Amino acid sequence: MIDSNDVYISHITALWVWALLSQRGQRATSFETVPPPCFEGGLRSSNVQAARATLQEFLEVVDIPGEIDVLVQSNHQRHIVRNARTHTWKAQMPLGSYRRICDNVLVCCPEFCLMQMSTSLSPVELALLTCALAGNYFPADCSKGFIETRGILNLMSLERFLSDVPSRTMGIRRCGKALSYAFEGPRSPMESATALLLTMGRRDGGYHLPRPTLNHRINLGRTARQISGTDHYVIDFYWPQIRFGLEYNGIEYHTNVSRDLRRELALSEEGITIQALTIEQVLDQAQLRSVVRRIAELHGLRLHRPPAGCPQARYNLINALFPWDPDLRKFRQPRYAIPQEFCLEA
To answer: In the chain, where does DSSP find H-type helix?
Structure first.
């Protein structure tokens, strides 16, 4: 039932809501679908303030930093509603675009969030956001650089949602392109960025390798279990056709030499070859090209001469995927990253 006091949360604030709810194991599909907004009587600033307080209580956070993103009826309302970043959506909204999460607070579904964000993000940034939504993390301003989630959407549901949207709708083509690039199940921004660099087309700056499965589970046989002391391993990047995997050696994982050796021996017993990959190798084109050449050769592929403009395209792609800030000496967070004070995990 539509209520004139309803507030429609959108864009970045909606992404934060779904990321934090995902930590609790709740997805958008857990909540009631509502019809597209009718904006009866127009939105008032008092409604926004009440919705903000309700949302803080529902999410169990002390405060929501900055202004919240809300959808309004017209450009006129954008100038009269205070304490909010106001947005309009002139096209017809797809069915199921909004979910009611509590009294008078409706949040646009993750798929619709992606369409909304497509107008302000580059194609690479949009692909990274798609990976985060389909993965098990969301960028956040905390020590680790992200919070762990349980998956905000899956790529199949995104494809179904986009297929129901008219082809001329704003952002639909950008979202479709991001969907073609994106991966299901990455566990960190670095995994997403590395997977995109390895598989995007060469004209886009990528290496155009066959797509791996991310975080693929390998069930071990008896001998391998005796070596490893576990019944399975999860491989960061795995190509099942060639039984080859890459293990992303981040700061927090894969630092136990004895454990890593047992892992390598156990997987070798299963006929699987594993190679370590570090951020230094990813950012050094000579080292990464050596890794790429090995994967291509195992697939029976040849690395052809890069097309005209490829070096500049690759430079641009690497800078977009790994935006290093020399002043802060760390990678810059996307503007939709969850602020530290809004994190359940800091």
So the answer is: 11-23, 45-59, 75-78, 110-117, 123-134, 155-163, 172-181, 189-199, 222-228, 257-269, 279-283, 285-298, 310-321
Residue 93 has what pLDDT?
Answer: 83
pLDDT of 253: 47
Residue 297 is predicted with a pLDDT of: 95
Which of 95, 90, 49, 94 minimizes the C-alpha distance to 72?
90
Single-letter amino acid, residue 145: G
Q: Where are the domains of the chain?
A: 7-179+337-342, 185-331
Cβ neighbours of residue 99 closer than 8 Å, sequence gap 6 or more? 28, 31, 32, 33, 34, 106, 107, 108, 109
Q: Of 252, 267, 318, give the one whose Cα is nearest residue 289.
A: 318
Residue numbers in the chain where pLDDT is lower than 50 = 252-254, 345-346
Residues 200, 209: Cα–Cα separation, whole Å: 8
pTM over 0.85: yes
pLDDT digits (tens, 9 = 90+) for 290-305: 999 999 999 999 877 7
Three-state SS at 341: helix
Residue appearing with tokens 């990528």: 206
Dihedral of the alpha carbons of 186, 187, 190, 195, in degrees to the nearest 10: -20
Check if the beta carbon of residue 106 is closer than 8 Å to that of residue 8: yes
Sequence-separated (6 or more) residues with CB below 8 Å from residue 208: 199, 200, 201, 202
The Cα–Cα gap between 24 and 233 comes to 25
